[in-house]
Amino acid sequence: MTPRATDIAAAVRAGGTTASEVVEAALERIEAGDDEISAFLRVTPDHARSRAREVDAAVEAGRDPGPLAGVPVGMKDVLCTEGVETTCGSRILAGWHPPYTATAVARLEAAGAVMVGKTNMDEFAMGSSNENSAFGPARNPCDTERVPGGSSGGSAAAVAAGFVPVALGSDTGGSIRQPASLCGIVGMKPTYGRVSRYGLVAFASSLDQVGPMTTNVADAALVYGAIAGPDALDATSIPDTPPDVTAELERGLEGMTFGVIEELSRGDAFEPAVIAAFERTLSAIEAAGGRVVEVSLPSAPHALSAYYLIAPAEASSNLARFDGMRYGLRVEGESAEDTNRRTREAGFGDEVKRRIMLGTYALSAGYYDAYYAKAQKVRSLVIRDFAAAYADADVLCSPTSPSVAFRLGERSHDPLAMDQSDLCTIPTNLAGHPGISVWCGDDAAGLPIGFQILAPALEEARLFRAAAGVEAELGTRAVGGGGEP
Amino acid sequence: MTAPPPDTIRGADGVEYEAVIGLEVHAELRTRTKMFSGAPNAFGGAPNVNIDPTSLGLPGSLPVLNRRAVGLAIRFGLAVGSTIQRAIFHRKNYFYPDMPKDFQISQYDEPICAGGEIEAIDDAGGLHTVRLVRAHLEEDTGKLVHRGGGGRIHEADSSLVDYNRAGVPLLEIVSEPDIRSPAQARAYVNELRAILRELDVSDVKMEEGSLRVDANISVRAVGDTRLGTRAEIKNMNSVRSLQRALEFEFERQVRICAARGEVVQETRHWNEEDGQTHSMRSKEEAFDYRYFPEPDLVPIVPDPAWVEEIRAGLPELLPARRVQAVCGTHGVSADLVMSVVYTPGLADWVDAEVAAGADAGRAYVWASQEVLAHMNETGTAVSGLRIPARAFVELTELTRDGTLSSKLAKQVLRAVLDSGRSPREVVEEEGLAQISDSGELEGIVAGVLDSNPEAVEKYRAGEEKVIGFLVGQVMKATQGKANPGQVNEILRARIGS
After folding, report:
1. What pLDDT sits at residue B283?
2. What integer is the mean pLDDT of B348-366?
3. pLDDT at B467
4. What's the predicted TM-score (pTM) here?
5. Nearest C-alpha of chain B: how many angstroms from A408?
6. ipTM higher than 0.90?
7. CATH topology for A5-260+391-474?
8. Is the Cβ of A335 closer than 8 Å to some Cβ of chain B?
9. Which of B342, B419, B326 has its CA nearest to residue B382?
10. How far apart are the CA of B306 and the nearest CA of chain A, in angstroms?
11. Residue ranges of domains in chain B
């Protein structure tokens, strides 16, 4: 079992251990275990060792090595890393070495963290199982016959397998929270604009957000603190200084009101074990002095439909640049247009093609108003409904996903069933609000279940307080090879 | 002055047709950096040096709006009376190898400048108002260089892309179809260029591509108020080509209409060599750009205080009005004043001389003839002229006191422009002063009369115009330096007696 990021950083800073030792151990764990899990698309030992030596040199020289000194981190392969191949899980970008580094990655490393590799993912972050990776799926460390969720499945698996204490993911419709839930770890999506998207290869620009995946809430807060904040390179970045969330972690649940979102917590889509674990969590919250009320989000059932128009529409435009002209795969054709077509035909997987076609259609002349414009109206309704719900509660909650991890191949030919996996997470992305998934128990087969907490925009402090409070009652799930909870 | 081409064409069917023209002008904005990134906005240089992740559209890169570009758009809008409004950006999606992202960030239904008008001035000094639909911000594309196959992409052996221009800020200025002739189109673009230059918004060099014009033209019978089917004409790289292309297209469409044919809605390419327009693509082949709001950028909400600050820095008069003001006050012909006002910096220099005491009428004539001729011959800009301050003031004084005839003044001015000396220095050093000494002139006149007895006879016989011949002979004898008025007087006094 890996120690917590907070403990590693404290030890490295105090000279109790070195970043090099910590990183070497992480590289060994990956070497020993990742053949089975495929959490990493590539491991970067040279980069990791040289970064670790820099951290150690800082400690030796008496300089501040940063709050995440020596913490090994997996970066989702959708984040650009200068000189390190970045593929987004797609053949079309195989071999591409970005000339620049994403802001979130740069900030995490500036805080002392050490990237040890790039993690597996659904191609261009489109998917909920990691089966859409062009380089083979990552597997769930809790049961390797099952998916780790997606699209940040590699990041979730890397943390749940105990390879690294921290990974970065990206969340467009639940891609951090859903795999965190399926792997029994903590996954947090900040307010839209809180973390710079510069260097995050875009899936759906108005929904994408980078966030931490960790074994516990305190580590997520630490990582959040390092990556959040204004960035002049992202016009949608929020100019305010983010709150200091670490101060909130010990405040407890006394006096906090949790609003259970009726539409996202009940119904046939939910496995009984998920509902049972959710109810147990609500009881624990009440026992800890929190209040539980029911709230309604009437537009929630339409959120999924709106999402599946807005996200593909933006994706169809964002992914147009993969045309074989400048970087990545190029399949020569008879003309520039033909080269473009052949490159995309060969380079994109089925799910990506499906969404590009859907999005292109939704934006076409004559269909825009019926699809894209209407979906944006639903989005406004979702935001309005959230505002009303927050009138009655400090935070909202639901199960993170209606089911536990499913078997590889079980849903891969049924896109609609796959989409159900993101039922509870998608409305948050449409609203741009922050959300977090914490572990709340296992089903009878030992598969983890996640509890989702949501907060209004910019209220990460409240979100972390609630999450830490719930974690204090339920504990964290052991990582690194299915140990006892 | 040549007669302006007719504004209407009589078709073979005997119907009088007029042209209905609207122009889309793209002006590159004078900024240090690109529209959405910190890469330099610079013309020329080696290919693919003024680039960064954003102007190459690399995965993960994001656009950040250039504040100066917005300020320049607002400056233009205020100068031409546009409404400055909240604006958003849209993505215009289409594939072309010079487009790094395969979409262009542009403005669609919420542009920064709405409405406004431009007054174009014709050679006779008349103003014609052209209303503007809008002026909006967008980014430029890269440039393709085709190797082999006559420079067109489809026949080329290979094509290279230079992304230096990709992301350079553009202001697209769209006119209403208020233009009625190719000559008016030329006048409109000349005025627009002068405005953009005067405001320091753009370099407006058509040959470098920093100003590009696309034209929409249709024809209709004079008196008809409906619009005909239009063609869009591209690839004109000078104001002269614009006028030629429109004249060609006007005639082509009139021929079609007169033969009861139908003009096809299409995009046509102007070919400078054969002087014709050629079909590029029809409406059916037109792109579906799938416009949608650019999610990577936030709306532009112009701060009213900023807008007022920009307004306070605007020039008092736009070029056409300035031409009118000079013509009205000093009685100089419009085409002369226009040539001065449309030359960057020249009118300001002339006005400073006038303010210091130079004669305004003479000053505009000198500027439009000798100074412009010198600039054209030597390829000099106003800032590079060696003409000293107060040169026009001195020339005025030297003319007024009779030292220089108007012809000599021009000769002195050419010498001033060539050498950088003051007019007085030129007059002294080259002995160009007019001969007004009556004793000296008496002697020269006597000599001329002695050698032309027949002319004297004719004059005495009543043939008065012979006096002109005799004055000419005196001027010849003095290399043009004799004071013509004085020569006239002396001649008449001598032979009249």
Report:
1. 67
2. 94
3. 85
4. 0.91
5. 30
6. yes
7. Amidase signature (AS) enzymes (3.90.1300)
8. yes
9. B342
10. 20
11. 8-302, 315-430, 438-496
